[in-house]
Specification:
heterodimer, A: 255 residues, alpha/beta, 2 domains, four-stranded antiparallel sheet, 10 helices, globular, B: 527 residues, mainly alpha
Chain lengths: 255, 527
Amino acid sequence: MVSPLIEVDQLSKRFETTVAVDRISFSVRAGEIFGFLGPNGAGKTTTIKMLTGLLRPTGGSARLDGYDVTRQPLQAKRIFGYVPDEPALYGKLTALEFLNFIGDVYRMKADAKARRIRELLALFDLQDDAGSLLGGFSHGMKQKVMLCSALLHQPKIYFLDEPTVGLDPRSAKLLKNILRGIAESGGAILMSTHIMEIAQALCDRIAIVDKGHIVGLGTVAELRSSGGQGSLEEVFLTLTATDEERRLAALANSV
Amino acid sequence: MGSVAEMIALTRWILHQRALAARRDWSSQALYAVVISAGIGLFTVIALGSYVGARTLAADRALKLLHSIPSWAFLIYLFTDIFIAFGQALGDLYMSADMPLLLVMPLRTSSIVVAKFVAGVVQNEMYVAAILAPFVIGFFAGTHAPLWAYPVALLAVAVFPAMLYAVLACVTILALRYIPGRHAKETLWILGAVVPTIFWVASFSGISEASGDLASIHLPPLPNWLPSTWTGNVVAFLAQREPLPAFGWLLCLLFAAVVVCPAALAFISRSFERGWSESLMVPKRAGRVRVRKQLAQLPWIALLQKDVWVLMRTPQLWFSHITSLGFVAYLLVGHKAQTPLMPLTIQLAMAQIGFVAILAGLNPGMTALSLEHGSAWLLKSTPLDALDILKSKLAITWFQTAVVVTLGAGAIAYGYGLNSSGAGALVAFALLMALCSVCCGIAFDTTFPSFHWENPNSINRGIRMVVPFLAGVAVLLVCAAFLAMARVLLHGAEAVVVGLVLSLLTVALVAERTLRTALRNIAALEL
């Protein structure tokens, strides 16, 4: 049995009177790509932000390769790479300066840093833009730089919040291959997405989140069988339907 | 909808939106109380100062000087307002987040430009209420002006800033139309700092050279084409109970502000869309660069290096440093005029450079963390601890302020003819006060971080910025009292050293308290 790299236990986040994430639990094993699906405002980004240290949980715990994210934040942060939903980067830095900065923050050795930057710039076809200021980059190019920064220190764990948004089809395909490669070499990936095709094609297991709760968890086949053999999209729509939508669906079926 | 109706509707909508945003910004009652108290204090000081000044000059029959004061006062305001208005014109027209939304709506560009202009002018009325209104009230009270003169003069000062803002908006639109966007923006920022600074120093130099007795002395006449002269004439004629010329100048002001400025802006707005489009053009790419092996840095040093690059490449961030050096020039120019009133001592020079340091450190400190902008998530999701972040933020803010105040202290020491130990004391005190100022600023910025700004000069702007400023000034007053006390009780170098040591202890205490607060705030920061 492979031990989980990401363990989330009863994790909660409350903003004053609103409960954004309510006692969710799941784990992601080494070699697994774990999809996080859910409608807007379901709590996907809040969960990822708690796991990456951007928000403090108000309840429960989370461990990354055994390190508690609230009690051992620095050790936990050293072993993951993160791509947020918005590629906000320092506009006054060049791509190369930015990647060198990230390498230093993760205490990479000079040789390894230079070699890895060269590899990633070539992989994402950014060599010609490495000396340009990030402020002039398009959304997609910024997203590529973000991916380079997350991959730079070769972490065990990846948190990717909508990683394919803004990428052209070639880069999206490249990303999928990279993620599959990471998983095959023993990494764990937690990825949120709205695109069912990507989730279906890439994720080993999927959690469907709604109103801060996990309403469905399993492989695509397990989710489909639990939802009456419909497509993943149908399962998603059924599990995340509002009471009003359920009432209308029942009414439509009875006619 | 007609163009005027559209303009009015859009203006109302923008003003409503800004009022809502301002109301939501003012959630802290303590902050509200501090700011209101500071505003009332400023109002009272200006009103009392102008009342006492006008009354003294009137009693001494220095009427020529008395009646030349309003035009000069408004000219000084006009040039000082350039600091704010250039940035505001750039911010409102080219860097505001709602502009892309407005431009894709079925609205005339002229309506957008004029509505933004009116909203900008209304925002400027805050300074009119805090600075110009008390001046007029005090001046009229001191000259026993009739009661009906007050509303007339207040109307004149209320419309006066519109002209400056309209001219700067036109200059900005034309600059961005004909000069590549990036260069135009940076140049306008620098001009906004340099032009008023040169004006201030040159004017003060002229005034400090003035001689003669009080009855015959008067300030040099000012050109009649300046709106500040028109406003000054309204106030001066009303104070002399001459309504006819006063109303003539008031009509001029109203016509220019209400008819000419919006019409000129509506006309020039044809260039706006093109300039807007040009300003969004992506800068030329640098081309392929070789990835060379670079020395690995400690995380906090890497963060510091990143901040140095950002500082070097963002001329807006030099703005406060230019004005601080301008203040040093002002002190040097005023040295001759000030010495007969207040004899020069090393302690006085230390207090003066201390004030420059408080000013110079204010902006870097108050923006230290907020400058991270949308990239703030990087600080919290990477293995940088709160102390790493604080160390690098303190280093970059103190370093840049230290460079400016060391230059300033050197210039003052040279200009005042101090020896090398005097210069050393000046530099040491300036560095201490710079540390105090940036620490107060960092504590404030980490308490109220603002990562969603449109340009770096709009971070922590508005009346709220008086809080760290007042904190810095309070510490300076304590240290100045120690310097003065040491001078009374001891002599020569010994007095300076004791004063410096006491100041060091005070600043150390302030730094310890403020940095502890900042560290706690950074550790607790959620994004």
